[in-house]
Structures are given as C-alpha cells and as structure tokens.
Amino acid sequence: MTHRYVYGVMNDDPVEFETDAVGDADRVYTVSHRRLNAVVSDIDTTDPEETDEDAQRHDDVLREIMDRDGGRTIVPMQFGMAFENDRALKNVLRGARPAFRRAINDIEGREELGLKIVREEDAEVDTDALEEAIADELESIAAQSVPNDLFSDRLVLNRSYLVDRDERERFDEAVSVLEDEYDDLMFRYTGPFAPYSFVDVRIGAQQ
Amino acid sequence: MFILDDLLIRPFVGIVDTLHTMALSEMYDIEALEAELKENQLLYELGERSEEEYRQRKDELEEEIEIARDVHERLASGRVEVKR
Q1: Minimal CA separation from B12 to chain A, in Å
Q2: Is the ipTM of this complex over 0.90?
C-alpha cells in the first residue's frame, strides 16, 4: 500500500477519517502542496481496476467530504487516478494549480443534480417542446447545466445541473412541479453528486 | 477513407482482410453495449425491470463488453487470423 489513490482536490482544511476506502484501505487523509489538499488513501497499484464496489466507495468518500462542516467544496477526480508516491502527486498539484483554483471557484458551494426523463415504450413525445419547457423552469435556478448522452431511445432528456446549495430547495420544488405536470413521463431525479460534470481537470496523463 | 488509408499503409493487406476487420468492429460495438448497460440500469431504477432480470442482463452485457474489448485489442495488434 505504498501508492496514493486520489478522490479529489480542495483548498479547505485538511481532513483525516477512517472509512471503507478504495482498494480495501481504511483511512482517508490529505496530501498537501501550498493549501491545495489532495484527498487520498493508500493503494497497492497505480492502475486500479474499476469494480462496482470501489466505484461506490470513491463516490461515498467524496459525499462524506461534501457533507462535512455544513458543506465543503471538493474538485472530484474520475475513478482510477493513482500516483506512485507523495512526490509525484505534489508535482501534479503544483503543475495544475491554476486549473484547480479555477475549478474550485466554479463549484464553490454548489452540488450536481441529475435529471433523466423517460417515455413509456411506444409513446410519442415532442422532445423539443419538452426540452424548452424544462429549460424554462430549471435553467434560471441552476448556476450551470450540461446535456448528457441519450444512451437509450426511451430517454427524452438527460441533463446535469450545477445548483447552489442555497437554491437546492427551490430546484427540488421546480422538478416536482414538472413531474406532476408531465405525469405520462417518468422522471429520474438523482443526486446530489460531487460536480463531476462541471470540472475538467485531467491529471492522469501527468503521473 | 479507412480502407484507403489502411491499404496505403499496409499494401500487402488484402481488401477482404480489411472488410473483415470492419465487420468485426461493427459486431463487437463496445459503445452500443455500454449504452445498453446504462439503459438496463435505468429501467431497473425506474422499476420496469426486476432485480433478477437486471442482474442477469448486466452479467451478460459485461461479459459481451469484455469479449468485445478483447476482439478490438486483437484487431489493433493485427493478431486476428483471417481464414478463407
């Protein structure tokens, strides 16, 4: 267990806690370089395999940090970033410092929510009109949003929203009003997640 | 352009081999399989698929994806034998 598995990067105070971490580690802590703290656990490989269990643990650790102290901000990494040692990781923190700063700034105090709308089999849906109606209600509350892949022909909308924690209640309510209004469609409203869809810091290639 | 490029780079590769390669990549379409994996998950979450159906389909699809990855790896390394 001599390598470092990275969950995300933050500039709040360091953390340390015991939990079920990726790769059967049991402790999560931070490796710091000038007030940027990478949240890590120890791991015995630099190329971890993405099992369902470890993907879940990765998410759980990020959630745990987001829920701390009334809501902390962490730039989430995708599953699978592991570094040889502290030095390699600190080099990346140094090199990608401006990118991390920008990302932290974008997501500070915000969380990601997902909305998928699914039609009944064989039902006809005017997707353009629906998209517009949804946008009218939700885009003004969300700080940002991005479209996601329509991976099934049953999906008529698949979007991720970045929402201020303070606006969360209003957003939930708007979704629920829409859900009542479109009762022939199925809504799958998920989250909150770490804002994966709204940060674009790639550090894997530099390890 | 795929065929042309491929033939220019490897002139000794016959057109039949190239078409065979293309057919194989299409048959083992990783993206389509991954999309179906996500659809399976979604339909389960919405309660349209039972846990048993969901698990069974998930296992099947994961196996197919693994096979497809293997085929693509072999195609990329030119280790697929073309028999005529």
Answers
A1: 35
A2: no
